[in-house]
Amino acid sequence: MKGSINLLPLEYRKKPIANREQVILIILILAALFYMVYYGVGVAGVEMTQYRQELSMAVADLEKMQDGLRKYEQKLAQNQVLSTNKRLAESLQKEIKPATPVIMEINKIIPAGVVLNAMETGDNGTLSLKGTAPGLAQVSDFIDRLNQSAHYKNARAVNIQEADTGKALWNFEITCAWQKGGDGQ
Length: 185
Fold this sequence. Notes:
Elements: H1 10-13, H2 20-109, E1 115-121, E2 126-133, H3 136-148, E3 152-162, E4 170-178
Antiparallel strand pairs: 1-2, 2-4, 3-4
């Protein structure tokens, strides 16, 4: 290095800057540090990727569980509806079986021209019949037939009104006590 100017202090001018082994050692240390930082980030990146995969699997499992819970709740609701419907059907069956002989007996004794629109049963064994008739004579005949029947007692007219149809029709409501007849019905 002849012709070059060295501005370093005198004690440093005579020392060689570094020997070859020192330079190699520094390069190796820097490479090791760089590798550790890069590899450490790589490991953290791999761990992050694994964490994300596990998290996405957990989210998928949670969604499956939520879907299963929704299906279970729907099935439970359906079962509750079925249970309610079953109770209603049993209740109706209990009411229909006794109503069958009532309807059959009324069908036998109802006068011509009388039309029943509603039939309601009360808690105390009473029966309310609502309908129309072409005249008061048919309503009276129906009440007499009910009282003569084995199933109906104490039949009486609760309400009789002329219908607002412009035709000769009478709306009526009759109540009576229903009881089992001699045939066990």
